[in-house]
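Section 5.1 Outputs to date
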Amino acid sequence: MDAYFDIRGGRMVRSEAFETLDPSEKAIASFYLGMAMAKAYAAQVLGIPWLMHISRYEAAWAVKYGASTKRPDLFGCNAAGDWAVAEAKGRDRVTGALVAKMRAQKSSVASINGAAPTHRYGAATRFPEGRLALRVVDPPPRGDAQEVPIDPTAWLLDYYAPIVDLIAEGDRQVEGRYLVGYIPTSDIEVGVSEEVVGWVNESRDRQFERPGPRRADTPADGMETFRRLAGQARPADAQLVERITEPTGDDGNIPNLFRDGIVIRSRR
């Protein structure tokens, strides 16, 4: 991101280094930008801060898919129990074929933990006139979508554990309520609250069920559409989920960028 994109006149543009990349390298850079913009859109526009890769869910939770192999890139939630399913793309042009593909992929999830997703959207980044723009589409769900039952406590653990591990690998320091770590070979610092760090380290050995998606037998419209995330957890974990998902606010010089309690900042 630092090498291939710049900010000019308050807008993101591609750097000169980007234009000299090989086409496959451009595709990789565009992929990461597309993911970042899908995350930013979910957090800032939809109020969905906890967003995770379906592929990571697939690896860690032993996902098995039904007849349809199409699936979105990301899914996530907020403390109110609103779920989002997102397909992210990074392209030079947003064509009708690309929009159709996003609609098919992000509509493949009918429900998450028994609740119909509040938002199903596809997000495509592009650069008309050389400046970053985002196109978002949000069509209705498909009839052959799948159901994703999860344990919210385990899901939050999987969300935060890689960040805690990343901080533990480098130099770190305490700032207020945050543990901030410097990422080696970069100028980036990442921080998360000490409470989350402690909870992740204490919870690693817990046994959680990760059943994975299954074909949905009930139409999405007939499912529950509102239940706080803590209410979707087992009763023994409800207070824990409520505490972890409470808004953290600002802590001195630590900005709460995406309302998931994770801080990302440059040392420059």
